[in-house]
Amino acid sequence: MEIKDELELPDWMKPIMDKQTKENISKRTVFSDARIKVSHSQPKGEKHSTVRCNTFYDIAEWCEKLLNKADDDILILGLDLDWPSAYKSIFKTKQIHICSGENECAILNVAEVDSIPRSLALLLNHSNVIWLGFNIHKDIAKLGKDFSLVVDEIISRLQNPEDFDEVKLSCRHHWSVKLVIEKGFKGPEGIIKQPETKKFKFNGLINYTNTVNDCGAVCEKLLSIAKLFPKDSKLVFGFDVEWPFTYKAGPGGGKVALIQMCPEKRVCFLFHVSSFKSLPKTLVLLLKHPRVKLTGLNIANDIRKIGRDFRIDVTDILQNNLVELCTLANKKLNVSHRWSLDGLVLNQLNVVLEKPKDVRISNWAANRLKKEQVMYAAADAYASLAVYNYLMKTESPNILSLLN
């Protein structure tokens, strides 16, 4: 069994790790994935007080108290971070665990904040504060990445815990190691599954059209709505396209068969264009309207394919109307990652976007789409919009009410 040990554990902890590894191997036959988790707790028999700071102001007030202490004397603090284990280098820190005394800790809930309070930033940088923890340099670096902090000086001041007498430490909690199984594993009793994550679904109205006239009429209404938006505001559509799967090498494949546009959670538009020789002018005008934005994954390639398949000049759309979700996510999360749409949905919304292969590679050019295809297509477009709104901290307007 391969253990993914990314923690560079000290020598005195390795016997604990080896013991727990052997115990787990004796109970389970096949591991699909595993990792080592380091955690700490108060000494047995001692009272332990944990302060939970769940708001920006609670965090600021608690850190202010520590700052006052640090101004008077050297303060040695224990630090540990918590964030979801899947994509763990990509997920943002959710909690900061700070030990400020032998029997006192604070859990700072930072999951919903874009920036940390100034008092916490000052505490991290305070010259009288010494931070201790396992792989402390990585935790400090992650805080810097997650909250746009300059942490080089903090890291340069980190010291070896062995240089300190135990009685001098502010934090004297016990540290322990345990093996955490990340995925389902097979044991004597068969397959054991992890608790299921909620599934991502589109529960709104699906407006499906498959004729040029109907498609043109719907796009005419959407154009009139786009014109109502102020110059500094945009009508944002989650956008995707589908076409018949082919094993043929090279770009193109089958012709674009379906165009999905979702402006909000209440309604999604599916334009089944597989039989169209050309796209309605109102659809083209909608795609390039100055107050319209289209967001999705690899969206530029989708637009180029529409241009090739229907002989449309898409230069203006490529230059002015697209928001690439991968680029947006990397910018907002301060990472460099090649995202899939289902990966983004899991990472940001903590739900599963199902993409069954039999639907994904099905015949999108069929005269009549199956229910599974319709639901798949609507969910894909809405997923792009939902991730966009989450990253941008925006909410889509009620377009459905304007259509009626």
Question: What attributes does this structure have?
Answer:
six-stranded mixed sheet; 404 residues; elongated; five-stranded mixed sheet; disordered N terminus; 15 strands; alpha/beta
Secondary structure blueprint with pairings:
Blueprint: H1 14-27, E1 34-41, E2 49-53, H2 56-72, E3 75-82, E4 95-101, E5 104-109, H3 118-125, E6 129-132, H4 136-147, H5 152-156, E7 174-181, E8 185-187, E9 190-192, E10 205-209, H6 212-228, E11 235-242, E12 258-264, E13 267-272, H7 281-287, E14 292-296, H8 299-310, H9 315-320, E15 322-324, H10 325-333, H11 341-349, H12 357-360, H13 371-392, H14 399-403
Parallel strand pairs: 2-5, 3-6, 10-13, 11-14, 14-15
Antiparallel strand pairs: 1-7, 3-4, 4-5, 8-9, 11-12, 12-13
Task: Walk me through this protein's architecture.
The strands form four sheets. The protein has a six-stranded mixed beta sheet with strand order 10-13-12-11-14-15. A five-stranded mixed beta sheet has the order 2-5-4-3-6, with helices on one face. Strands 1-7 form a two-stranded antiparallel sheet. The chain is elongated. The longest helix has 22 residues, at 371-392. The chain has helices at 14-27, 56-72, 118-125, 136-147, 152-156, 212-228, 281-287, 299-310, 315-320, 325-333, 341-349, 357-360, 371-392, 399-403; strands at 34-41, 49-53, 75-82, 95-101, 104-109, 129-132, 174-181, 185-187, 190-192, 205-209, 235-242, 258-264, 267-272, 292-296, 322-324. The relative contact order is 0.12. Helix 2 packs parallel to helix 3, helix 10 packs parallel to helix 13 and helix 11 crosses helix 13 (371-392). It has 14 helices and 15 strands. With 404 residues, it is of the alpha/beta class.
